[in-house]
UniProtKB/TrEMBL annotation:
Official protein name in the record: GPP34 family phosphoprotein
Compartments where found: Golgi apparatus membrane
Top-level taxon of the source organism: Bacteria
Record membrane topology: Peripheral membrane protein
Length: 210
């Protein structure tokens, strides 16, 4: 069997990797939102975060690998969208380092045209990404939603929120719309919050001509 990372953010980072183009399929900003939402979802599914008045609150004490529970505990009540937006790029760096340290990816520091810094990312074993794809695919098509692995369900919900084409091309998002909604409802509030944040960012960029 192919071993895959345990954390949901690490899995989503790998799912965002395009094996054909050998690069990440999302920009750093969008990827950061997706990884923050993945971390919030993991905490929610494991009971370490609860929800009160549509805001995350600390739940059962336990591991806090990315420090989000500590951030939420130290803050006044804020929306899920706020916590999805916060420190997104730092989250990308943290998860990337986690994967590099674990031997899942290789990061080479390059310069485009000899001037501009650029990090070239390579997945060491493409079978890991394909295994994660398989889990997401089976979540879309197989057993009743209640029996789907919680992280596979969350991967689909997050991929839909981020319009992650490596996992859910547009035709699949349309074809499986109802199933995606059911998987999203099962996965908690962070994925819908990420969708709102990402769409607002896209709209802002389009309005400004970016």
């Amino acid at each position: 069997m192919v071993e895959i990372p345990e954390t949901l953010p690490a899995r989503m980072f790998l799912l965002a990797y395009d094996l054909n183009k050998k690069r990440l399929a999302l920009s750093g900003g969008t990827l950061g939102y997706l990884l923050r939402a993945a971390a919030l979802t993991e905490l929610y599914l494991d009971g370490r975060l609860d929800e009160e008045r549509r805001r995350p609150t600390p739940g059962t004490p336990g591991e806090d690998p990315y420090g989000l529970v500590a951030q939420i505990s130290a803050s006044r009540p804020r929306s899920w969208q706020y916590w999805v937006r916060k420190d997104g790029r730092a989250m990308v760096r943290t998860v990337r380092q986690e994967l590099a340290d674990g031997g899942w990816i290789r990061v080479r520091h390059r310069r485009r045209l000899g001037l501009f810094p650029h990090d070239e990312i390579t997945v060491r074993d493409p079978r890991v990404v394909k295994t994660l794809w398989g889990g997401a695919s089976s979540a879309l098509r197989g057993r009743p939603v209640a029996h789907v692995n919680s992280y596979d369900a969350a991967a689909v919900a997050l991929a839909a929120a981020g319009e992650l084409k490596t996992v859910l091309p547009a035709p699949d998002r349309r074809r499986h719309k109802r199933r995606i909604e059911e998987l999203t409802a099962r996965s908690g509030p962070a994925a819908p919050a990420a969708r709102k944040v990402i769409r607002a960012t896209q709209y802002s960029a389009a309005a400004s001509g970016g």
